[in-house]
């Protein structure tokens, strides 16, 4: 993988300010505001709380994420599912096998042959123990799903609390302006009305605008939002420095951990609840890892260490210094109150409004990345994923998820319309997400990095104990807002668990009902199966063996085509796959049966499935495979035989030239024109009588290069038979499998199947919907009772 230049790193660092760090930057709006002023009894307690803020920012985002977790990326992707994916590949813990079909075949081409550094090492006891017990597999999947649900819930709650906190400041600003222009009798009434009724409607309007911008992609949004975040950080850090100097310079002494110990010695339920608000200062830390696919590790790390971290410490120190000297002043805990110049308060209100909208971006893009990863592991329904960059694969936009986030976020904004309650729910989501990452990361250290078990345990105990303290403090406020996180968790977990369960059962049924190729080649003649003229394309996800729906088809209609091609699509994590490397062709069964397998590879910007000449490309590729089958030195091995990636140059130059034409004229020397009844040139026969009028249809013909060796007769004959089959007609066979719960199944199982069936019917169609004529399309349905 090519390394980014410093210029590219600086550009990504600039963009990351508008995407990843918007939330961390706007957290000062609601960290102290979510605290009940009556819970702080003295300035010393404010110093002690700042000590917690300092060390929490230092230990979690800086030490844990910037220096450790960012190194555990999965091909540039981050988040709990990337850690789970690493564990699935390096330990046999995946509930759906990761080595499906062609994966091993494709890896022969993509991986260089090298010695395995792990050979010769003693067997990892931790890996052996985890692989042995099935319960540990389910536990790891649950952790991954839990972490994903927390990030998705955060994508709903963070926009609500960020925007609502800013509009609350706008309401206070408008209330002060109204007092100037209102009469003495009505000014208090008008001010209270503005404070009460303005924030929520304005927040909803801003949320609609924010989610509407998402389709522009990470790059444009980052460039648009980054200047806002920079201006915002410079603004609040400048006033933070002023407050430190003017109000309480002693706040800098609170960086000593002695202040935390002093707080813990007098701990009680009131103090414990305060920590639930303090944890919001690291809300957005998980986005540093979850949004990794949108940027690079170096850009994220440099931006946080050199800019975000020192600026946030300065801001929190200044705010704490102001509060410690103004504990009994009404509204002192609001960040806007710490602005020393009253004339700048209205500027602050407008700037915070823009910054709060930006602050939501980190969790929204993290939600898109998580859904993209979940789809790859069959844990989320099929939805449209739009890749917004040709250079960075992880920059994605999910339209359906975007509108779902918007609706839920507006619903919670209207339903709760209270910053304190939203803060409690957000704090719980943050701490659970952090704890899940810690648990999965400790396993990655032991199983993937293969460090000593002691290092893994130390990581788990050190970071896990800190996060567990914050988790327990947020749980004390469960009935004061944190309960709404449970609703979001149940919503997302039901969707993901049902889809994963249904996909797993469907895959197991496909494998169980799949038959070997010998059934089709050896036993089908005895069942009276006949071959009919034409060529049949069978589309399925099964890339080894005969798919269950096709055996169902043969059993009920004992016939299949003269030439049969099993086609499977495989997505590659690149923008484009060159046409010369797109097809992986192999033979299924003996030559005389003329059954082939084609694996089509495409990038996330390719439109290979929407082309009208897709059929011609497949036939041309099969023709080239036949000509090169016995001579290609770069053929790959598969359980069914040799497979060839087309387009690889041959040493002897014996490849075919394949052409397509839309008219019936001749075009150069062709194969077998004088030796065959029709040869391989698809033009009019030219025999006696008036030639038929030309027909505008696409046809394939094969030609030899001028300096190629003579073709063997058996190869020539097989190519002629393919062309004959094409002239006889083409049919497309698609499989549609359905799940049903068996009679007597328990209620939980029936509920999972029912939800999966609903999601399957309403999700995006499988990626095999070609431009197929309705007259040539045949869908075969199979029902699996589980």
From TrEMBL:
Its main location: membrane. Residues 13-521 form the K+ potassium transporter integral membrane domain. Keywords: Ion transport, Membrane, Potassium, Potassium transport, Transmembrane, Transmembrane helix, Transport. GO terms for cellular component: plasma membrane. GO terms for molecular function: potassium ion transmembrane transporter activity. InterPro entries: K+_transporter (IPR003855), K_trans_C (IPR053952), K_trans_N (IPR053951). It is found in: Cell membrane; Membrane. It is a multi-pass membrane protein. Residues 533-786 form the K+ potassium transporter C-terminal domain. Pfam families: K_trans (PF02705), K_trans_C (PF22776). Residues 106-126, 661-696 are annotated as: Disordered. The chain crosses the membrane at residues 50-70, 138-164, 225-245, 302-322, 347-371, 392-416, 428-448, 453-472, 478-499. Belongs to the HAK/KUP transporter (TC 2.A.72.3) family. Potassium transporter. This is Potassium transporter. It comes from Salvia splendens.
């Amino acid at each position: 993988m090519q390394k980014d230049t410093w210029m590219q790193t600086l550009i990504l660092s600039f963009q990351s300010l508008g995407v990843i760090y918007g939330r961390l930057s706007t957290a000062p709006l609601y960290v102290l505001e979510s605290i009940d002023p009556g819970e702080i009894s003295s300035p010393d307690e404010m110093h002690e709380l700042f000590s917690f803020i300092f060390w929490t920012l230092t230990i979690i985002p800086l030490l844990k994420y910037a220096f450790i977790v960012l190194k555990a990326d999965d091909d540039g992707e981050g988040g709990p599912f990337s850690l789970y994916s690493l564990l699935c590949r390096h330990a046999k813990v995946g509930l759906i096998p990761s080595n499906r079909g062609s994966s091993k075949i494709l890896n022969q081409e993509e991986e260089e042959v090298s010695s395995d550094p792990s050979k010769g090492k003693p067997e990892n006891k931790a890996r052996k123990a985890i692989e042995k017990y099935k319960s540990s597999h389910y536990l790891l999947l649950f952790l991954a799903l839990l972490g994903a649900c927390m990030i998705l819930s955060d994508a709903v709650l963070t926009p609500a609390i960020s925007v609502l906190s800013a509009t609350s400041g706008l309401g206070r600003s408008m209330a002060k302006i109204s007092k100037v222009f209102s009469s003495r009798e009505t000014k208090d009434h008008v001010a209270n009305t503005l404070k009460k009724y303005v924030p929520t409607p304005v927040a909803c309007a801003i949320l609609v605008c924010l989610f509407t911008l998402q389709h522009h992609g990470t790059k444009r949004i980052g460039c648009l939002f980054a200047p806002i975040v920079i201006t915002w950080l410079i603004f609040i850090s400048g006033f933070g420095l002023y407050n430190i100097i003017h109000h309480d310079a002693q706040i800098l002494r609170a960086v000593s951990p002695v202040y935390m110990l002093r707080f813990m010695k007098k701990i009680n339920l009131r103090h414990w609840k305060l920590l639930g608000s303090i944890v919001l200062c690291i809300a957005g830390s998980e986005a540093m890892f979850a949004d990794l696919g949108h940027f690079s590790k170096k850009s994220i790390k440099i931006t946080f260490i050199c800019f975000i971290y020192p600026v946030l410490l300065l801001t929190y120190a200044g705010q704490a210094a102001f509060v410690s000297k103004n504990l009994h002043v009404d509204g002192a805990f609001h960040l806007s109150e710490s602005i020393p110049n009253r004339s700048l308060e209205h500027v602050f209100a407008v700037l915070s409004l823009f910054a709060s909208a930006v602050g939501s971006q980190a969790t929204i893009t993290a939600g898109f990345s998580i859904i993209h990863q979940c789809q790859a592991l069959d844990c989320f329904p099929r939805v449209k994923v739009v890749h917004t960059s040709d250079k960075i694969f992880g920059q994605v936009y999910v339209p359906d998820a975007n509108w779902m986030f918007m609706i839920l976020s507006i619903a919670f904004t209207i339903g709760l319309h209270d910053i304190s309650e939203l803060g409690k729910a957000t704090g719980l989501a943050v701490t659970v997400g952090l704890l899940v990452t810690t648990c999965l990361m400790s396993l990655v250290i032991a199983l993937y990095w293969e460090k000593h078990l002691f290092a893994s345990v130390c990581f788990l105990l050190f970071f896990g104990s800190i996060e567990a303290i914050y988790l327990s403090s947020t749980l004390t406020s469960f009935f004061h807002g944190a309960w709404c996180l449970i609703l979001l968790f149940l919503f997302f977990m039901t969707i993901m668990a049902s889809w994963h369960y249904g996909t797993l059962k469907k895959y197991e049924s496909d494998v169980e009902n799949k038959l070997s190729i010998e059934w089709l080649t050896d036993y089908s003649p005895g069942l009276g199966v006949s071959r009919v003229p034409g060529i049949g394309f069978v589309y399925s996800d099964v890339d080894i063996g005969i798919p269950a729906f096709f055996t169902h088809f043969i059993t009920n209609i004992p016939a299949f085509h003269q030439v049969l091609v099993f086609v499977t699509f495989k997505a590659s994590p690149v923008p484009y796959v060159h046409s010369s490397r797109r097809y992986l062709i192999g033979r299924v069964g003996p030559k005389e049966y003329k059954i082939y397998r084609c694996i089509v590879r495409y990038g996330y910007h390719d439109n290979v499935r929407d082309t009208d000449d897709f059929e011609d490309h497949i036939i041309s590729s099969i023709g080239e495979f036949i000509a090169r089958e016995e001579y290609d030195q770069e053929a790959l091995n598969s359980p069914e035989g040799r497979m060839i990636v087309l387009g690889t140059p041959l040493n002897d130059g014996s490849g075919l030239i394949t052409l397509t034409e839309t008219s019936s004229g001749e075009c150069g020397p062709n194969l077998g024109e004088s030796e065959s009844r029709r040869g391989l040139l698809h033009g009019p026969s030219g025999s006696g009588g008036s030639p038929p009028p030309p027909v505008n249809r696409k046809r394939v013909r094969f030609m030899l290069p001028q300096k190629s060796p003579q073709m063997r007769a058996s190869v020539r004959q097989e190519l002629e038979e393919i062309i004959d089959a094409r002239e006889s007609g083409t049919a497309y066979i698609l499989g549609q499998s359905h799940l049903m719960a068996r009679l007597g199944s328990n209620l939980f199982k029936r509920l999972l199947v029912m939800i999966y069936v609903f999601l399957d019917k309403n999700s995006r169609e499988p990626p095999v919907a070609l431009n197929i004529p309705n007259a040539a399309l045949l869908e075969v349905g199979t029902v699996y009772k589980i």
